[in-house]
Amino acid sequence: MAQYYLIPKTAARAVPALGALAQKIEAWFLGSCFWLLGRLSPERASTVAAAVFRWLGPRSGKAKSVRRNFAIAFPELSEQELEDTCREVFGQLGMATAELIKMRQIWAERDQRLQFQIDAAAREHLQASKPTVFVTAHVGAWQLTNLISLHQNLTITTVYAAETNPIMQQMFYQMREAFGVKLLASEEGVRPLLRELSAGHSIGLAMDNRLDSGEPIPFFGVEARTNITAARLALRSGAALIPIRAQRLRPGFFKVTVYAPIVSPDPEASTQEQAVAMTRRINEHFEEWIRETPEQWMCLKRRWPTPGKP
Fold first, then answer.
1. What mean pLDDT do residues 169-197 have?
2. HSE value, Cβ hemisphere, 13 Å, CA-based, for 288
3. N or C, where is the chain less crowded by C-beta within 10 Å?
């Protein structure tokens, strides 16, 4: 996550005292915004946040990565279409922020706001209380996939990216507690995840971002360094590998879909070969979701290598 939201990183690094002050100011400012959004209904909070993010986002440093990712994934888009898509990506990010703020209310009003659709094979697996590796992408209302824990009474540990601003980290952590899952910072590695799976629990990973040490696997027809940890964990522990998606039907209303487990196409192959093949299938799911609603893919980091760079 971002270290500084309102000042350039170069300025903060040049003057450490400025950086510390900026983090306090940012925490106060964003905390005040979150408090105001929290006073609104989920629908109104999403609408307001989307409007603000649509204006601010395209002017941020993240916009360059968004435009580049979409130019590679959808080369048929015109320059104007790229700009329009980029602006809407940030609008959707605003909605996702509002949804995190309103998560407790969304769950409390789940009978009106939430639909769950679970594949028959996945349902049988979940009802047997067997360990699962849930995988999703930053598409739509992806954070709501965590609510499968409350819906199915599962013990799930979800990996998240911690904020470098300690004040913001505490703020976001408290909001994420509404998911009903255990939270594990990504820098803690895979050992805690293996322990959870060995104990018969489940884990959740969003894995559409670039991993420099990942395997080159096609994504939208172009090789991209891809994290195969989810498949490797499933193979090593015997857990099921299950894609899960949360769609935003309209502001404040959602559908969570649990797909059929992904199985190895060749159980006799090496673990590495099986993991790559299973991750390729995960990427196919992600491509399908993104093609369906491209403007809802929050691809704020460089997904494919820049020419001349790894």
1. 91
2. 12
3. C
CA atoms within 13 A on the CB side of 81: 8
8-state DSSP, 142: G
pLDDT bin (cut points 50, 70, 90) of residue 213 is confident
307: confidence class by pLDDT, cuts 50, 70, 90? low
Instruction: Identify any residues that bridge with 156 across adjacent strands, giving them in sequence order.
Output: 202
Q: Mean pLDDT lowest for which of 108-112, 131-135, 211-215?
A: 211-215
75-to-91, 241, 283 alpha-carbon distances in Å? 22, 31, 18
Q: Give the DSSP letter of residue 306.
A: P
CB 70 within 8 A of CB 81: no
Whole-angstrom Cα distance, residue 299 to residue 207?
Answer: 11
Place of tokens 């910072």: 185
Q: Which two tokens stand for residue 77?
A: 């888009």
* Residue 135 to residue 114: CA distance in whole angstroms: 20
Higher pLDDT, 250 or 12: 250
